[in-house]
Amino acid sequence: MSDCTHDCSSCGESCAERQGGSPFQIKPLREGCRVGKVYGVVSGKGGVGKSMVTSQLAVTMQRRGHNVAVLDADITGPSIPKAFGIHGRAVATEDAILPVITGTGIQLMSVNLLLEHETDPVIWRGPVIGGVVQQFWGDVLWQDVDYMFDMPPGTGDVALNVFQTLPVDGVIIVASPQELVSMVVQKAVKMAQMMNIPIVGLVENMSYITCPDCGKKLYPFGEGKTQQAADEYGLPLLARMPIDPELAHLVDLGRIEDFQGNWLDAVADKL
Ligand code: ADP
To answer: Measured between alpha carbons, how far is residue 143 from residues 107, 108, 134, 167 in Å?
Structure first.
């Protein structure tokens, strides 16, 4: 299975692990497209840094010499194109959509790139949003992708549900320190286990602040609780990213590809 193209329609492998338990049909990729590993990035609620972690992971893997893509179907607040400084709309051929290419060569498709004005609210609901990820998978001309990072619409178990329609190799759960000890993350972890989706690990975002004067790390939400919570779920806590004003600034400037830092190296090592 090492050269799996995820084109299940032309593959004779029974691949029980991925397809056996799923009642959904995984849409084939477009002819000539290739996507290697697929990882979902989910969180229990919005605003905890799912887009930040997805962007940084994509940049980290690209810096390691891989071909990387981001599929951003996070309808509640599609901030990925903004972080990469991409504005305007995606270009379509007669029956397919071309991914937008970022400054360093990451292939990107986002709900935001399909809206007439990027400030338009997205009012799709229910089955429509569920279908976006599948459409992005099957209708975008992904070129020779080694690693794809997916941000599904919704949060927690709703987001995980979407992965039944994609050949995901694993999910990365992003949480803030407060959220990590809450029911929301617990629910997402249980859901992934029930659906047989491997969890790569947890990323704690906004873990601490480094004092600009003395360099001391301050933990506004407490320090020890998260490791304890991760242990309870039986999952590795792979990264603890600080609140860093420089990161927020780079996102605002659309220059996330310039970020400095190696917080997500342990995650990248596991992919
Ligand atoms: P989500 O995708 O989960 O809704 P975002 O990644 O968009 O969350 O993050 C919400 C806001 O917080 C954004 O403005 C983002 O730039 C900022 N942010 C996220 N993580 C950090 C961080 N570690 N340091 C500084 N700002 C951050």
So the answer is: 8, 11, 17, 17
